[in-house]
Structure formats: structure tokens, C-alpha cells
Fold:
Amino acid sequence: MDSIVVTGGVRLKGQIPIAGAKNSCLALMPATLLTEEPLVLMNAPRLSDIDAMGLLLRSLGVHVQASEDGKVITMSSNGPVSTMAEYDIVRKMRASNLVLGPLLAREGRATVSLPGGCAIGARPMDVHVAALEALGARIELKEGYLHATAPTGLKGAKVMLRIASVGATENVLMAATLAKGTTVIENAACEPEIVDLAECLVAMGARIAGAGTSTITIEGASRLGGASHTVIADRIELGTYMMAPAICGGEVECLGGRIELVRTVAERLAEAGVSVEETGRGIRVARGNDRIRPINVRTEPYPGFPTDLQAQMMALLCIADGESRLEETIFENRFMHAPELMRMGADIDVRGGTATVTGVKRLKGAPVMATDLRASVSLILAGLGAEDETVVNRVYHLDRGYEHVEEKLGSVGAKIERIQN
Structure:
């Protein structure tokens, strides 16, 4: 497995382009199953998860073609479509479950393996199942597969989500575009990725109101057409690279970033003493020689602080001048990076869903092991601000969510390289 080697103590200076949003693109790609006309996605990120979704769609009979640089994906479902999403493909990532709603809407049936992804806690499929059953689907779990049918088609209904699940909102949103009648999703997720999906579906001919709020209304259509759509910037990559100069000092402009995507993150960084300002081309983040101020952070659904940036924020608070508290409310098993940061000299006390971080003047480089996608990059960030050399092992998760991280950080002065073992 590859490793990332980071030599800390270098101030960063320059610009980092922010890629298209992984979590948005993974929801947009299954939307091609809702139409027989081409769907073209621009500003797609170049990630292994995107490749895996392409592989899954091809296995269902979708024609998927990427441009030479991987940033434009053209898909067409104008032939016979399989309704079986096999375990060997689905196990590679959580977002594979997003073919369930579109397949039910198009074919009236679907057999989808329970998905995989990072081991960061329970992400139950029951919310998806209950939402689709409200539209008239019948779903059984047998031998690790969800067997779903809607023999007379899906019908519009009021859908109350038990939790504001992003994936469940996306699944029922896509399914409802071809359901008969009106669907109202209550307690819908409000993330920017939901808005991005809705805008693409509207471009395809769907009738959707309220995306970005907790109540979304969909008027079912008899058919959808093709469209071209530009994927929004990845707010998690954006937040990650905003923390890089905060940790090791310097000034970085994140090109393509927008404050509204990361407002809570920007507020927490400013509270910690980091300069954050919007420019004509993105967001500029800078820190001088003053130490980071301690702050308290609580992860929450959007527009709250993202759980996907909790590990990166912990790395930053490890060098704060005082005691900080991080409360994780989304996933129950998402502090696995804490012991690895402690190997670098961090002072962290984890009790249940709360981590108390007492800052030290400087972390020290050490061999560490990545446990999941966001933990991987948090250890790299910690290494940027540490003394000497840090070796981050088992970084195979990294390529699922960050394109060419060593090149992007290297372009602003970081001493970082990938070692192929």
C-alpha cells in the first residue's frame, strides 16, 4: 500500500484549485438512469470513487465515457438496463445505494447489495427503505441484498424522513421525479449537494421546489430528458485546504471556493485567529506567527460544521494555545484518528462523542496509520505543522476523496511525496 511522507515546518504560499464535489457527482451520476437521453457532467473530480460509480453504472448497461482529463463525464442509458447492483462493485463505496431510487422509478424493480465505504459508524439503510416504501415500493432484505419492487409504479406521497439523511433525500428525490403525482419530503437534508442534484434534475425536466430547505416538493413527470450540468465545488476539499495554511502558517488562495459552501468552517477558523476572506477567484486563508486560539466545535448537518471536516479541525486544534472541545454528533465511531495524532505528541482525551484537545506548541513527526478517508488527510495536515518527518501509512482511502493531494500541497510549498510500497 502507498504511503505519504511529509516533512513539516514549511510555510505555504500560492494557489490551490478546488475540484468538483465528490459527494455531489456521486449523486448526479445515477440520475442518468432516469432518462434515455445523454447526461453530461462537467467539473467532475478525478477520484477512485467516481471511477467505481462509473463501473457500477456500466454493469447496469449505462454507456459511460470520460474526457481525457476526466473532468467531463458523458452518460447514456438508451438501451436495456440491468436492475442488479452486484456486491463486488457496491461494497467499494457507500454512494452505490443511490441507484436504488432511479432503478425503481425507471424499471419498477431493483436488487441492490448493501453498500460499503469507510468504517466510521452506522449509516443505516432503513431511512432509504422507509422513504421509498412511502412511494409504494415493496422492499425486502435477503442475503445482503435489498430486493425492491414497484409493480404498478411509484406514487407520490408525503415522506417524513426519520433523520435528515443526505443519501435518503437524494434517493427519494430522484425516484419521485418519475412517480405519479406529488411527493413532499419532510425533514429533508439541506446540503448544497442536494441543491446541485435538484438543479440538474430540473434541467432534465423535473419539477422540484424547496431544495436546500427541510421541505422539498416534487411533481412527478412522465419522462425526463438529457442535460448538461456543472458540478459544484467540493466544500470538504475546500475546507481541508483552508486548514493547511492555518496549521503551518502562510497564505493560500483556494480557487473556485465560495464562502456560502463553508460559512461555518470560515467562522470557526476566524474564531481561532485565522484570516479568511473571499476574493474574486476563491477564498484566501492566512496565518502569521500567532498561535491558534482554542475553540469549541460541534458537528451538525448543513449548515452546521461538517462531520467530514472534524478530523482536519482536530489536527489544527492540536497546536492551539489552550483547551478545545470537539463534539461529534453525526457518526459514533469517528475519532479513530485521535490515537494516531497522539503518536505525534497531541494531547487528546476522548470520552464518548466528545474529544478534549489540549494544544501543544508543536507536534512531532512519527509513523502513523490512516483509518478512513478524512483521517488520512488530517494526518497529512498534522504532518505539515509537525517537526521532522511524518509517514502516513495505508492511504488507499485518500484517493477516494482527494485528487492528487501531494501535487496540490506541493504546488504551494509543502514537502510531501507519495511512496509506492
In short: The radius of gyration is 22 Å. DSSP finds 13 helices and 24 strands in the chain.
